[in-house]
Amino acid sequence: MPAAPNAAKDRTMDVVQRYAERTAASYARIEDVYLHRDNGVVPFQVADVNYWLSGEAPDRIPDDYFTNCESMLQYQVKKIQRHMETYDDDYIPFLFPWYGTGVIPSAMGAQVVFQPKMDPAVRGTVITSPEQVRRLSLPDPSKDGLMPRVLETIRYFRENSDLPISCTDPQGPFTTALTLAGPATLFVWLYEYPQAVHELMEFCTEAFIRWIKVQKQEIGDQRGRCCFPHGIILPEQFGKVWLCDDDCGAISPAQYREFVVPYNASVLREFGGGTLHFCGSAEHQIENLAATDGLLGVNNFCMGNFRQIYRMQEVFAGRIALKVCDFSPLCIAPYYDELFRGLRRKGTIVASFVSPELAMNNGKYENVSRTGENIAKEAYACLRRHCGES
Question: pTM here?
Answer without folding.
Answer: 0.95
